[in-house]
Amino acid sequence: GVFSWYSYVTPMLTQISGFKTEMITGLMILAGGGMVAGNLISGKMCTHFYPGKVAAGFQGLSAFALLLIFFLAPYNWVAVFLMCTVTFCLFAVSSPQQYLLIEFSPGGEMLGAASVQIAFNLGNAIGAYFGGLPIDYGMGVKYSALIGTGFCIIGFLIFCTFNYFYQPKKI
Fold first, then answer.
1. Contacts of 64 (CB under 8 A, 6+ apart)
2. b/e per residue, 96-126, with b = 16+ CB within 10 A?
3. Is 17 within 8 Å of 141 (Cβ atoms)?
4. What average pLDDT does the segment 144-152 reach?
């Protein structure tokens, strides 16, 4: 879901939020900082809470933040805060997913780890495609955030279903 929006983050920041093109590099550094922080903080959280619940929480937060981006993108520094929140959540889902993959694939850890990269790249391609559809139909770049919201809600529901049927071990 995040890739539906993030694939078009530069046009959103320049066309909707009003940032100059020269500022995009610095803004992408902030987005990257959100990614690093999300990975580190969610990894720490997984030592105190079930990883599936941590992932579900951040998946739900990313859906909410993407929805807010749709409505608040014209307010440039709010858009930056939300961009960092979404990139934080993108990588905050990663640590718990990695742990759960290893936990639930005894004997197939290497195949599972390789599959994560495949799924990440596939999600990036699918997200970019679907995020581009509203742009192709003339609806504007901010609508890619709505597409992402839908995908993130689906991810949240999948994590909730997982958490209902499995009680992952605490790390």
1. none
2. bbbbbbebeeeeeeeebeeeeeeeeeebeee
3. no
4. 97
DSSP state of 21: G
Of 155, 142, 122, nearest to 72 by C-alpha is 142
DSSP annotation of 46 = T
Instruction: Output DSSP code: residue 73.
Output: T
Residue type for 50, please? Answer: Y
pLDDT tens-digit readout, 121-144: 999 999 999 999 999 999 999 999
The dihedral formed by the CA atoms of 33, 36, 39 and 42, expressed in degrees to the nearest 10: -50
Instruction: List alpha helices for the chain, DSSP H.
Output: 2-6, 9-11, 24-45, 51-72, 76-92, 94-103, 109-136, 143-165
Q: Tokens 């959540």 — which residue?
A: 89
